[in-house]
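Module 6 notes. Inverse folding takes a fixed backbone as the condition and produces residue identities as the prediction. Think of it as a translation problem where the source language is geometry and the target language is the twenty amino acids. Below is one complete input and output pair. Work through it position by position during the lab.
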């Protein structure tokens, strides 16, 4: 009986780790998609500083 309980506990731990990994990967993917959508929205609005740095205007010279 003890061997069966140990085996069941090990299977449950492995299953829990797999589920946690899948959930973590899912959050990572959703976060990446949300960031990409925000970037695309910014670019579609013709903004010039969508990634956090200022892009100089090609028609302007010097500071």
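Target side of the pair, the amino acids:
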């Amino acid at each position: 009986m003890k061997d069966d309980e140990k085996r069941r506990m090990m299977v449950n731990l492995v299953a829990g780790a797999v589920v946690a990994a899948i959930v973590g990967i899912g959050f990572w993917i959703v976060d990446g998609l949300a960031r990409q959508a925000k970037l695309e929205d910014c670019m579609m609005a013709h903004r010039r500083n969508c990634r956090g740095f200022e892009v100089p205007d090609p028609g302007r010279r010097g500071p």
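Reference fact for the lab report: Residues 2-44 form the longest helix (43 residues).
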